[in-house]
Amino acid sequence: MVSVLKLHRQKKYNVRSMPIQKDDEIQVVRGHYKGIHPSKVVITRLKLDKHPKKILKRKAKCRQVGKEKGKHKEETIEKMLE
């Protein structure tokens, strides 16, 4: 079950969502506590052991690659025209 991270955690880890684990702290955003669903929950504190750290590194790495994707610079255009 995957849920969104709180805004300051998103900026810190450069990741928007993470799988919810047993010892993570969450905040219910909408509705009541009965029937907690990931769309109504925000993760406030992550329990970072071995597996979640790997997920964070992998997801952050992918987001960095995506920022440069599709953007052309003058140098690359000049090389293509030559």
Automatic annotation (TrEMBL):
Biological-process GO terms, alphabetical: translation
Keywords from the UniProt entry: Ribonucleoprotein, Ribosomal protein
Ranges annotated as biased composition (Basic and acidic residues): 65-82
Keyword Ribonucleoprotein: yes
Region (Disordered): 57-82
GO terms assigned for molecular function: structural constituent of ribosome
Entry GO CC: large ribosomal subunit
Family matches, as Pfam families: Ribosomal_L26 (PF16906)
Record's keyword annotation contains Ribonucleoprotein: yes
Family according to the record: Belongs to the universal ribosomal protein uL24 family.
Protein name per its UniProtKB record: 60S ribosomal protein L26-like
Provenance organism: Cricetulus griseus (Chinese hamster)
Name of the gene: LOC100752748
